[in-house]
Amino acid sequence: MSQIKKILRNLFLLLKIAWEEDKILLIGYFLTSIVSVTLLFLVYFFYKLMIDQVFRDLAANPSSILFLIIIGYLLAEYLSRFVTNTLNAFYFKFLLRAKFQNALTRRFMEKLAALDFAILEDGAVRNLIAKVADTFTWRIHANLQMINYIVYNFAAIIVSFVVAARFGYGYFILLFLFATPLYFIRAKYGNIQWSIYSSQSDKINYLWYLRYLFTEFPTLSEIKIYGLKDYFLKKVKTIQNEIVDKYKKPIIKQTLISSLVSLVLPVVIFFALKDFTAGIFTKKHSLGDFTFFLNALYTFIGQISSLLVNFGVIYENNLYVEDFFHLQYLKNKVKEKKRALKLQKSPKEIRFINVSFKYPGGEDFALKDINLTIKKGEDIAIVGHNGAGKTTLIKLLFRFYDPTRGKILIDGKDLKNFNINDWYGHLSVLFRTLPNII
Fold first, then answer.
1. In this protein, which residues make up the domain named ABC transmembrane type-1 (predicted)?
2. Residue 436 has pLDDT above 60, yes or no
3. Which helix (H) or strand (E) is 70 found in, with range?
4. Are 125 and 328 in contact (CB under 8 A)?
């Protein structure tokens, strides 16, 4: 039940994002799905009328009614294809997908920019970010698309039941019951695949790193000069094969079980058609009724199977969607006070008083009992061997972390009391590798 609540909550959040991005596109996307189902059954109905009218005209003189029915059939067929293929599957789907993905990308980037280094340097968080970066542009949108498919599925199933009211619900209910296991199969193996993906996050991160080496000119130059291309490509292929092999066994098992379950459906269909054709010979049903029933039956079968599979896909994708929202709701470890101070001008003095710092999860102090005073206008160079704590000291000055012990004072006031973004306005930094963003 808790998993269902998570799925419903996440679907609501996805719809909320899409709604905030473009209400008209979202409404149009779902509305055209419902209209396309109505038009599809209108096509079936005109087809039934056309067949019945042909048999009537065979027994009498041809009438103009058949001509009008054919026009109605062709018009319904055209509208059905236009709404389904042009409006829903192309116009609304394409534009909504583009805007939705843009919104997700902005939220992803905004969240990363808002997280402090105390969070960003956590290994578990870095793995989470890597997983989200790898999947959010397609897994999350896929769930929005699945919602649209489910709207279509439900609309088609409801209309099929309305049609079935004339012929009896029995076989429709049996088909639903026999198709239900497909959902549980998809959900079970979707969970297995997500578990495999999560367990392979270190390897996936390494693949991303290797790909990065081939896209950066300095590292690519070294790869070419030192003849490392084959070495790295061999490592990439080995890791890729290891990941694929992990997925192979559960996918084969899922395919076999799904195939066995699907074998039951033709048996139910056989008895349904056998009973209905018997009704034709007793004049209970017309041949047009038979085509209408057959179309409704196969639509029902297809949509029930599709509905259950789509629920399974949503369940599977939700495991990745959950990662996205988990990242969105991460809280910073460095807290800023509600009424934080702002510096009106550049500080005259920065003081480290008995500052000690230990990285989260670390056993040893990176800095211990540091006392340092920097006056305005002074040129200070911090020199030391690797691991001496030079970078850590700068991180504390930038308040990427708070000291484990001691204080950092800015003109006599604790750095913790200042607005972080305002404090950044008084600092500048030149990194060893400067990205080409200006």
1. 27-316
2. no
3. helix 64-81
4. no
State the pLDDT at residue 377. 87
CA 194 to chain CA centroid, nearest Å: 13
Query: Is residue 129 within 8 Å of 112, Cβ to Cβ?
Result: yes
Token pair of 36, please? 């396309």
Q: What share of the chain is helix, strand, coil (3-state, %, to 5)?
A: 70, 5, 20
Closest CA to 343 of 410, 289, 399, 287: 410
List the structure tokens of 195. Answer: 């578990």
E-state strands within 176-278 = none
Q: Is 406 helix (H, G, I), strand (E, B) or coil?
A: strand
pLDDT at 438: 43
What single DSSP character describes residue 330?
Answer: P
Q: Which long-range contacts (CB under 8 A, 24 or more apart) does 255-264 make?
A: 257/185, 258/182, 258/185, 261/178, 261/181, 261/182, 261/185, 262/182, 264/178
- Taking only Cα atoms into account, the Rg of the chain, rounded to an integer number of angstroms, comes to 32
Residue 118 · residue 403 · CB < 8 Å: no
- Assign domain 349-426 to its CATH superfamily: P-loop containing nucleotide triphosphate hydrolases (3.40.50.300)
For tokens 């130059």, the residue is 221
**Residue range 178-194: mean pLDDT, rounded:** 67
- Fold assignment, 3-329: ABC transporter transmembrane region fold (1.20.1560)
For the beta sheet containing 367-375, the strands, ordered from the edge strand earlier in sequence to the opposite edge, are 367-375, 349-357, 405-410, 413-414
Q: Is 430 exposed, middle or buried (0-12, 13-18, 19+ CB in 10 A)?
A: exposed
CA atoms within 13 A on the CB side of 21: 21
Q: What is the pLDDT of residues 328-343, one digit of tens each?
A: 999 888 888 888 888 8
Tokens 């049609």, residue located: 163
CB burial readout 154-183, b (16+ within 10 A) else e: ebbbebbeebbeebeeebbebbbebbebbb
Predicted confidence band of residue 367 (pLDDT cuts 50, 70, 90) = very high
Structure tokens at 68: 């009008």
Identical fold between 3-329 and 349-426:
no
pLDDT tens digit sequence for 341-353:
888 888 899 999 9
CA 264/CA 175 separation, integer angstroms: 9
What three-state secondary structure class fits 356? Answer: strand
